[in-house]
Automatic annotation (TrEMBL):
Residues 3-226 form the AB hydrolase-1 domain. It comes from the Bacteria. Gene3D superfamilies: alpha/beta hydrolase (3.40.50.1820). This is Esterase. Pfam families: Abhydrolase_6. InterPro entries: AB_hydrolase_1 (IPR000073), AB_hydrolase_fold (IPR029058), Sec-Metab_Biosynth_Hydrolase (IPR052897). Signal peptide: none annotated. PANTHER family: AB HYDROLASE-1 DOMAIN-CONTAINING PROTEIN-RELATED, ESTERASE_LIPASE_THIOESTERASE DOMAIN-CONTAINING PROTEIN. It comes from Tersicoccus solisilvae.
Length: 233
């Protein structure tokens, strides 16, 4: 199976290194993506919006053979893989959301992140909730900040646009980190707007991986195991 790994904010394709090896060992072809404007700290991010990131994922799908693919999106990458699924619902065998979920029509990923012109740099740790930072040690924080690349500012605030309701037929796995799976199920049952798009998907598997918002840093072996299992479904 071809697996496209889409990083969250401030991360590039190399951030998937801790999980790529186990996926390859399980016999899969792994494609960690570095999205436009995230090639380096010095990259030009002016004019890059959410759709540019979606289009980059769709282009990679189209560049592969005609077989099915699995899309994995971490954090803000969840919105991106959902739009890519919407664009190519006949190609995506499963979408896996790592501490993230599908973003519905008109939603934005996070327009509260501070920006600096065309850039949205990694904010100070005080910007995040305590749940985000669970298990993120001082050593991990230092390594993360040393390698962080600013997100294109428009990606944080551009509205999502979707077109094909066949996206709801694509099976989904949610790897729940900050919020336990039971909490997500309660929100779905209660019709909470936070999970409105997720609630419309017909086949949803929720897997608990309790840690903070960056499991590829805090629990990489467990995340790799969860991804291998999700793809195997």
């Amino acid at each position: 199976m071809d697996i496209l790994l889409v990083p969250g904010f401030w991360l590039d394709g190399d951030s998937w290194a801790p999980v790529a090896g186990p996926l390859e060992a399980a016999g899969h072809r792994v494609h960690p993506l570095t999205l436009p404007g995230k090639e380096s700290v010095d990259a030009d991010r002016a004019g890059i919006g959410l759709r540019d990131h979606v289009d980059a994922v769709v282009a990679r799908i189209d560049a592969l053979d005609d077989g099915p693919v699995v899309l994995v999106g971490h954090s803000g990458g969840g919105a991106i893989i959902h739009a890519a699924t919407d664009a190519r619902p006949d190609r995506v065998a499963r979408a896996v959301y790592v501490d993230s979920g599908p973003l519905g029509e008109g939603g934005v990923i996070n327009d509260e992140i501070p920006t600096d012109g065309p850039d949205a740099p990694l904010p100070p740790w005080e910007f995040f909730e305590d749940e985000d930072l669970t298990d993120l040690t001082e050593q991990l924080r230092a390594a993360f900040r040393a390698h962080a690349v600013p997100e294109p500012a428009r990606v944080t605030s551009d509205p999502q646009h979707l077109h094909d309701e066949r996206r709801f037929d694509v099976p989904v796995t949610v790897i729940a980190c900050e919020f336990p799976g039971d909490q997500l199920r309660q929100w779905i049952a209660a019709g909470h707007p936070f999970v409105a798009e997720l609630a419309r998907i017909r086949d949803v598997d929720i897997v608990d991986l309790p840690t903070g918002h960056w499991p590829q840093l805090t629990r990489p072996a467990d995340l790799a195991e969860a991804l291998v299992a999700a793809v195997g479904r």
